[in-house]
Amino acid sequence: MSWSGGPDDIFLSTSLASYLDKKILVLLRDGRKLMGLLRSFDQFANAVLEGACERVIVGDLYCDIPLGLYIIRGENVVLIGELDLEREELPPHMTCVSAAEIKRAQKAERDASDLKGSMRKRMEFLDMD
What we know:
Elements: H1 7-14, E1 23-28, E2 33-41, E3 47-58, E4 61-72, E5 77-82, E6 95-96, H2 99-127
Parallel strand pairs: 4-6
Antiparallel strand pairs: 1-2, 1-5, 2-3, 3-4
């Protein structure tokens, strides 16, 4: 069995080149999710997104916060994937809200998590007796 492709074919199939000028989703190490058109990249997965936005999701609420032209440092990238423009991006029960509303929801979620953590510490203290 012979293979007629050269080394360039392997590079293109395993690189981001197939995503150029397509809408992609980038998951970052800190959990943020960015979407935009991939305009450029390098061997370190540094990437330039045009028309980028950050999708913030809290429960059943979401908001796409516009970022414009955005440069992503490759070491922060966990996952990159092409978005299928033919499919619905989110389940129908998700509700789009303003940036101010999603920030309030994030704060409420963070406060609830902090409270839960402090309650757990108090309970652990009581269990030591």
